[in-house]
Amino acid sequence: MLRSSISSNESELLDAATPRHSLLSGRFKQSFAYVTLRSRMPGIMLQVIQTLQSKQPELVQEYGEEVEKDLRVIIESVERLKRELSRDTQFTLFHGNEPDKLEWNAFLSELPHPKRSYFRACWMHAECYLYRRLYSFFENSRLLHNFDYFADLKQEDLKLSGVAMQSLAVATRGLGKNFESFSKLMRINLWSNHYEIQLSAFSHEKLSNYVDIDLMAQVAGLDKHLLINESTLVWNCLMKAKGQKQIVVEYICDNAGFEFFTDLLLSEYLLEHGLATQVRMHVKAIPWYISDVMERDVEWTVSFLMQHKQPMVSMVGHKLARMMAEQRLVLAPTTHFWTGPQPYFVMVDCNIELYRMFTGSQLAIFKGDLNYRKLLGDYIWDSAEEFITCLRGFRPCNICAMRTVKCEVICGLPEGVADHLLRVDPQWMISGNYGVIQYTDSLKCNCYLSSPPSKRNS
Length: 458
Ligand SMILES: O=P(O)(O)OC[C@H]1O[C@](O)(CO)[C@@H](O)[C@@H]1O
Known about the structure:
Cofactor: Mn(2+); Ni(2+)
Number of strands: 7
Number of helices: 20
Shape: globular
Number of domains: 2
Keywords: Hydrolase, Manganese, Metal-binding, Methyltransferase, Nickel, Transferase
Strand content: 5-15%
Pfam family, one: ARMT1-like_dom
Helix content: 40-55%
EC number: 2.1.1.-, 3.1.3.-
Largest sheet: 7 strands, mixed
Bound molecules: 6-O-phosphono-beta-D-fructofuranose
C-alpha cells in the first residue's frame, strides 16, 4: 500500500543522500529522514493505535462507555494521518481546540507550496507536524483531551532502570566541587541520551558491579566516541558566575525515563555546589517524540523515586522534592515553542518572552538530538563549521548542546573526522554511538531586544 502510494510521486524524490548545505528532507531517499517518514513514523502511529486498543477496557472503566466513541474517532484519524503520510499529501491547517493553532497555521501557510508535504518538506517540519497532528486528535476529543499515549513507555523505562539508577545514586553521593566530577557527570548524562527508550541495550548486569563514578563513566564507553568535548568551557562559564546572587541554568530537557533521572542528578550537582542557584527545566507541553518529558512525567518521576525500594534512590527522590519545594529546581512556564516546527534562531521573533527569560540566565543546556537539530536548523552544515556560526545568531545566553548523534546534522568537528568516520563506520550519524558536548558564549549585547522588530530587521 505504502509502496504503491508513494511510488506515484516517487519520481519526484531523489535517489540520493542529503547534499551538503541543504535541509534534511524525505526528498532524499538515501537519508534517514526518508527511512523515518517511510517506515518509522507509520510504525509509531500503529503503536499508538495498538496502545489505544489495549487500553480500551481501562479507559472504559475510567470514563465510562462513552469513551469508546472517542477511541473510534481517534483511531480512524490516526489511520487517516498514516494514509496522508504514505501518499505524501499536503499539510492541512488546524481547526480545533489546539492552543497553538494560530502559530502552527501561520507557519504552515507561509511554507512555499512545494515544501508543504511530508516527503518534500524539511524533515523537522514534517516530523513535528505529525506529532502535533497526533495530539490534536486527542485534544479535540470529548474525554481524552489530556491523554498521554506514550506515558506507559516512559514509565516503563524508569521502572526497568532500577539497577542503573541505584548504581548512579550511590556513585554520585559526595562528589566534590571540581571539574573532574562535573565532567564525568556530564558524560554520563550525555550517554543517557544514547540509551533512551527503545535503545536500552546497555547491560544492567554490568552496571550493577559499579558504584564508582569513574568506572561508570568507563562503562559508558563514550570517551572514545566523544567527538567534541567542550565541558571545560561549560565549567569555566559556571565558574565565571561564582559569587553572583542569582545563577540560573536553563535546562531544555529531552527524554523522560532513565535519561531524565541523569538530568536530575546533574541539576542536583549544580545546585548542591552553588554552580547554579536555580535550575529551570523546560519540558514539552504535549506528548512528543514518544519519550519527551512533560510536566506530569516530572511529577511522576520524583514521586516514583521517593517511593523506590532502594534507599539511596529514594533519598535522591526526597532531596529533589525538597529542591523543588525550595524553588531551586523549577519548571519553566509551559510553552508550545518547544513543540513547534521552528528552528531556535527564530525564538527572538516568535517568542520574545522566552528569549528574554534566557537572556537573564548564565547557561542553557540543550539536551538530545532533536534540540540539536533545532539549534542547527535541520541543515547539513560543513562538518567543520563552527557551532557559533550554525546557531545563526541564537545566543541569548551561554549555550551548551549535549547529544548523541542520531541524524545527519553536525558541526564543529576537526577537518577530516567526518570523512574518516564515514569510511570506518558508515552508520555513525544515525547509530547514537557518538556524542558531542558543544559550547558557545552568549552575545555580549542584548540591546536590540528593546528596539521594535522593524528596527531589528533594518
Ligand atoms: O531523543 P532525541 O535525542 O532528541 O532523539 C530524537 C531523534 O531521534 C530520531 O528519531 C532519529 O533517530 C529523530 O527523529 C530525532 O532527531
